[in-house]
Design goal:
Blueprint: H1 11-16, E1 20-22, E2 25-27, E3 29-33, E4 36-39, E5 57-62, E6 65-69, H2 75-89, E7 93-97, H3 103-106, E8 117-119, H4 121-142, E9 156-157, E10 162-165, E11 168-175, E12 182-187, E13 192-200, H5 212-224, E14 230-234, H6 243-264, H7 269-273, H8 287-306
Parallel strand pairs: 6-7, 7-8, 8-9, 13-14
Antiparallel strand pairs: 1-2, 3-4, 4-5, 5-6, 10-11, 11-12, 12-13
Helix pairs in contact: 5-6, 6-8
């Protein structure tokens, strides 16, 4: 997910059901597996009412310490997240994985020592090139929610396919499609798959840095991987592990076909943004909003491909 100007288990389970509020953010972990908790983001655009906390976050307890999957949009969020996570797991955070470059997932990394923050090399390079622009945009959208948040780069480039934390080994998958570098994670102990923004569920996918062909290929790889439940980047946990992947693929296939036909029919971008959305997507949050954003993201490229300039001799 990315900003736009428009939005410009005993006692531990009991503890996880109690919201922790600090700096205005509510961090409410939900146990979804043995030593794994999900913190749900709001199924909304980035806006002042939610402080940009729209991405799903995961907390994993390991013998070596607490592992975080993404850290939210700001230092204030990440500090609250860290406090809650360490109380739940009972150990300090030893690793933070940043799934991709979009600011709702990783700008909070400035709250951590960069030496424990890991991301794909492509994510680090994209943040180096584009991260300050994202940070500036988030300040404009969210104001005081972002106080103290500065762009910081992950200190560890992920080149290995797994990482062991005192006997709990996490598998790391280097993919792409939602962005140029998308990290996914499989926890073999529970079978849980953390998809980042390669997977959305009952929340319309966003496409600001998308390569739809690469995205489909990544979804096919995730679906073929033996796994249990899926944690999407946005939307509710999918305990079955296939519905969210299938729904995301269905959406991007429909979107591409629809916008391609719209270009061929000569529709302008406003008209394309108002095209009907199939009933099967009716329960998807912010569907119209994301269709209209995707028109702005994808339409120019489709027009250049399908309506090339023809020079008359």
């Amino acid at each position: 997910m990315i900003l736009s100007r428009r939005s410009l288990l005993g006692g531990v389970v009991a503890l996880a059901s109690v919201p922790a509020r600090a700096a205005g953010y509510a961090i409410t972990p939900e146990a979804i597996g043995d030593g794994v908790w999900l913190v749900r983001g709001a199924d909304e655009p980035i806006e002042a009412g939610n402080g940009g906390a729209i991405a799903n976050i995961a907390i994993i307890a390991t013998p070596a310490g607490t592992v975080l999957w993404d850290c939210g949009p700001s230092v204030r969020y990440a500090r609250s997240l860290r406090q809650v996570a360490e109380q739940l797991a009972g150990k300090p955070v030893v690793r933070l994985y940043v799934s991709h470059l979009h600011p709702d997932h990783g700008l909070g990394l400035a709250a951590f020592d960069p030496s424990i923050v890991a991301a794909l090399p492509g994510t680090i390079e994209a943040l180096r090139a584009e991260g300050q622009g994202y940070a500036d945009g988030m300040y404009r959208l969210l104001g005081d929610w972002m106080r103290g948040t500065d762009l910081t780069l992950p200190g560890r480039a992920i080149t290995q396919q797994e990482e062991d934390f005192g006997g709990r080994t996490l598998q790391l998958l280097a993919l792409s499609g939602h962005s140029g570098a998308d990290l996914a994670l499989l926890d073999p102990q529970t079978g849980l798959l953390l998809g980042g923004d390669l997977v959305f569920h009952d929340r319309a996918p966003s496409t600001p840095t998308a390569d739809l062909a690469a995205w489909r290929a990544s979804l096919d790889r995730l679906k073929a991987l033996p796994h249990g439940g899926v944690v999407p980047g946005h939307g509710p946990f999918d305990p079955g592990g296939k519905a969210a992947i299938d729904q995301t693929r269905d959406w991007i296939e429909w979107l591409e076909a629809t916008l391609t036909q719209a270009v061929r029919d000569g529709l302008d971008m406003v008209e394309a943004g108002e095209l009907p959305i199939p009933d099967r997507f009716a329960k998807m949050a912010v569907a119209r909003y994301e269709v209209q954003r995707s028109v702005s993201h994808l339409y120019p490229g489709l027009e250049a491909k399908l309506l090339p300039r023809v020079d008359v001799p």
